[in-house]
Design a protein that fits this description.
Blueprint (H helix, E strand, L loop, with lengths): L11 E5 L12 E4 L26 E4 L4 E3 L2 E7 L5 E5 L1 E6 L2 E6 L6 E2 L29
Antiparallel strand pairs: 1-2, 3-8, 4-5, 5-6, 5-9, 7-8
């Protein structure tokens, strides 16, 4: 609250709206927290700090490498025989120009990030290895 220093009241979010209000830039959430002294009353405005999980050693790919179809998001990867495969992935948050891949990709997979229009699943390719530029990676 306005008179509090820091964030002395702790609680849990039990609902987060799936959509963002485009006109106001707000997201509706509902929190549940103990209020034994009844210091929080309906209609009060409060500051809220919501911690989120920081993923160590997350797999990051350029956002432009992601494709989508009716089945969901996918990446094109090159297997050990240099054949392009379409791999269904679960995406996470954005870190700069990169997207966290939460599931469906292994650390040693080779992801197609350039020439996406020429990479056709099932075709053999001559891959050119390229490191993701450090400027696109988040600084933490």
């Amino acid at each position: 609250m306005q008179t509090d220093s820091g964030f002395p009241h702790k609680g849990k979010l039990d609902y987060i709206s799936p959509t963002l209000n485009q006109s106001t830039g707000t997201l509706a959430v509902r929190g549940v927290l103990p209020n034994p002294d009844r210091v929080l009353l309906p209609g009060f405005f409060v500051r809220v700090r919501v911690p989120f999980d920081h993923q160590e050693n997350a797999l990051l790919v350029p956002n432009v490498a992601l494709g989508s179809d009716q089945a969901g998001r996918y990446l094109l990867v090159v297997n050990s025989e240099n054949v392009v495969e379409q791999r269904k992935v679960e995406t996470g948050p954005v870190e700069g120009d990169l997207r966290v891949i939460e599931n469906g990709l292994k650390p040693d997979d080779r992801v197609v990030i350039a020439g996406l229009l020429r990479a056709i699943p099932g075709q053999k390719v001559d891959p050119q290895l390229q490191k993701i530029e450090a400027s696109a990676a988040p600084t933490r």
